[in-house]
C-alpha cells in the first residue's frame, strides 16, 4: 500500500518484499506524538543512545581484555597505555556507564512525576523496571572486570548477600562464585554474563518500545490526545528536539571523559585485587549507593537484602499503589510535594550509602529508608483517595494555546 | 523542574568522589602544570623526577607497567632511551641451555623491580610491602597533592602519640603512622640541570613523574578533549537553532 510513497525504484523494490522502509516511515510520520512534550521526554532516547555507546565501546574493549585473575588488571593497563586510543575507549565506557544511570534515573523520576506508569501503560513501566534491574546486574559485573581492589571486594560483598537466603543461600553463592570464594571462575562467568546482558537489555528495550507505541507517549499534562490537533509527527519535530538533548548529553559526556575521567570512579580500583587486604571502606559504584544505604540500614542481613530488593519490587507494583486517576503531578498539589521529598530522600540515601555505616549515618539511613517505603506503601495509596486534584484541561491544545499561565 | 532535576544529578555526581577523601588529614594543594583543561606535563621536571625515582624510590618500589620506550614522553630521544635502558641489567631467558641470564636492558623492557616477589619485598622492609608506583598517582584520592604532601609530611610526632618501632609519623598519611621511613630530605640527588633540589622541589619533581606514569595519555586526552568540547558546543548551538526553526509552525 505504501510502496508507492517511495520515489527510488530500489527502495520500492525492497520495500515491496521487505517493508522496512514502510515501517520506518510509519514510525517517523504516522506515529502521533503529543505536541506538548518537554525536554524531560528526551531521556528515553538518551538511554537508548547510552546503551548503544556502551555496547560499541564494550565490544572494542573485549578485543583487548583478558578475563583471568592474573592478567585482567594488566590487560586494562595495556588498553590504557599501549592500545591505540584504548584510554579513550575505556574512559568512554567507564563514564558512559555512569551517564547511563544518570539518564535512566531522570527517566524514572520523569515517569514518577508525570504518572507515566498509570493505565494503560503499566506494562511499559514494568518493562522499564526490568531494564533497570538488568542494567544494575550488568554494571555490577562490569565493575568486577578490571579486577582492582574495589572490583574484588565489591563482588565479595554483593555476592555474599545471597547467602542470606534461607536453605539455598549458600548453594546460590557457590554457584555465583563457581567455587568457594570470588576467584578466577567468578571473573570468567561475570565476563561472559557482562557481554550477554546488554543484548538481553536491548531485547527488553524493543518490548518497551512496542509497549510505548501501543498508546504513545504520556505528556506533561497527563491527559490523552483527543485528536490530530493535539499531536504532531515524530519527524521532524521530536527528532530535532531529541537532537538538542543528544548534543547536550554528548557535550557533558565528553567533558567527563576528557577532563574528569576518574571523578565518578574509586581510586582503590587502580590497586590490583588483593584477597588478603580489605579496603578501609568498601563502597559500590555511586549509582548503587541509595540501595546500598537501604541494605545497611537494617541490622539483620536477610532483612537488609529483602528491603534492598523490596525497594525495586515496589516499583513493579507502583501502578496499583497509586490509584489516582490523574496522571500528571501538575494537577496533584500534594503528590507534587511528596514527589520532591522522595527525590530528596533518594539523594540523601545515595549520600549515606557512601558514608561508613556508623553513628549518625546509620540513624539517618534508617529514617531515609523508612521514608522511601512509606512514600510508596502508605502515602501514595492514601493520596489516591484523599487528595483533591486540580481541574484537568479539556485537551492538550487548550493549555498549549493558552500558555500564558506559566509552566509548572 | 528541569533545573531542579539537574541540580539533583550534580549533587549525586558530587557525592561520588566525596567518599574517597581521607578525612583526618589535610593536603597541600599545588598548582600542577598538568591541572586544568589545557594542562601539560613539565618535561624537565619529569626527567628530574625520574632521576629521583631511580636514585631514591627504586631501592624499594617497583614500576612494573612502565617500559623504557615510554620515556619518549619525558622528552628523551631514541638514543638517550637506549642508553638509559642499557644502564639496567634485566633478566632474560631461558637460553638454549635452559638457563636464565642477565643482559643490558633495551627500550622494549619494562623497568626491573627491586625485589623478585612481594614476599622478598616484605622481608626487606620489616613486613611492610612497598606498593608498585606505576599507578600510585591515580590509586590514592587527590593523587598528586597527596603524594607531594606525603613526601614533605614527615614531622616530629606530637608528644601524646607513641610511635611504635618501625613506624614513622606523617602529617598526610591517614592515621599518621606510616611504615615508610622518610625518603627525601632535600639535596638527595644532584640535578644535572642545576635545578633547585630542596625537599619541596624534589618532591614536586617526583610527583610530576609519577603522575605521568599513572596517566601517560593525559596530554593527548586534554588536547583531544578541548577540540571535542569545542566541536560539540557548536553542535549544541546548531541543534537548538534547527529545533527552533522546525518548531516555529507548531502552536
Jot down its keywords.
heterodimer, A: 408 residues, mainly alpha, Cytochrome Bc1 Complex, Chain C, Helix Hairpins, 2 domains, two-stranded antiparallel sheet, 15 helices, 1% strand, globular, disordered C terminus, B: 251 residues, Cytochrome Bc1 Complex, Chain D, domain 2, two-stranded antiparallel ribbon, 7 helices, 4 strands, 40% helix, 5% strand
Structure description:
The complex is a heterodimer of chains A (408) and B (251). With 408 residues, chain A is mostly helical. Chain A has 2 domains: 32-225 and 233-282, Up-down Bundle (Cytochrome Bc1 Complex, Chain C); 285-387, Helix Hairpins (Orthogonal Bundle), CATH 1.10.287. In chain A, 65% of the residues lie in helices and 1% in strands. Chain A has helices at residues 9-17, 20-30, 43-62, 72-81, 86-113, 122-144, 149-161, 169-177, 184-215, 234-259, 289-297, 301-321, 333-353, 360-386, 397-401; strands at 32-34, 231-233. Chain A has a two-stranded antiparallel sheet. Chain A is globular and about 65 Å long. The two termini of chain A are 44 Å apart. Chain B has a domain at 38-66 and 110-241: Cytochrome Bc1 Complex, Chain D, domain 2 (Orthogonal Bundle). Chain B is globular. Chain B has helices at residues 2-18, 43-55, 78-86, 118-124, 143-151, 199-214, 218-247; strands spanning 89-92, 101-104, 168-169, 177-178. In chain B, the strands form 2 sheets. Chain B has a two-stranded antiparallel ribbon. Chain B has a two-stranded antiparallel sheet with strand order 3-4. Mean pLDDT of chain B is 89; it is low at 8-22. Chain B is 40% helix and 5% strand. Chain B is mainly alpha-helical and 251 residues long. In chain B, helix 2 (43-55) crosses helix 6 (199-214) and helix 5 packs antiparallel against helix 6 (199-214). In chain B, a hairpin with a 7-residue loop joins strand 3 (168-169) and strand 4.
